[in-house]
Amino acid sequence: MSRRTSQVSAPPRKTLTTERSVTHSSWFRDALYERMSEDLHLGGMSQRTHEGYLRAVRKLADFCQRSPDQISEDQLRKYFL
Questions:
Q1: Which residue of 20, 43, 45, 58 pairs with 49 in a disulfide if CB–CB is 3.0 to 4.6 A?
Q2: SS (H, E, C) 1-65
């Protein structure tokens, strides 16, 4: 009697190249994106952390409607407190 095991395959993970199109926005431009991406790489962050951080910064920039390097601490307090 043969025993069948069902194998569940995980969905394919997004690579940085596919994630990149999702990460960019009109507020999070190429030069700043590339610099942050390089810093994360040099910091030894995993690919998943790398993607998550870039996504979070893009969402913050879109929410505040300005470049991440133009968002002040006072503006963050105003938005989130």
A1: 45
A2: CCCCCCCCCCCCCCCHHHHHHHHCCCCCCHHHHHHHHHHHHHCCCCHHHHHHHHHHHHHHHHHHC
| Beta-carbon count within 10 A of 61 CB | 21
pTM to 2 decimal places: 0.66
Contact 57, 28 (CB under 8 A): yes
Instruction: Give pLDDT tens digits for 15-36.
Output: 444 444 455 688 888 889 999 9
In sequence order, the 6+-apart residues with CB closer than 8 A to the CB of 37 are 16, 50, 54
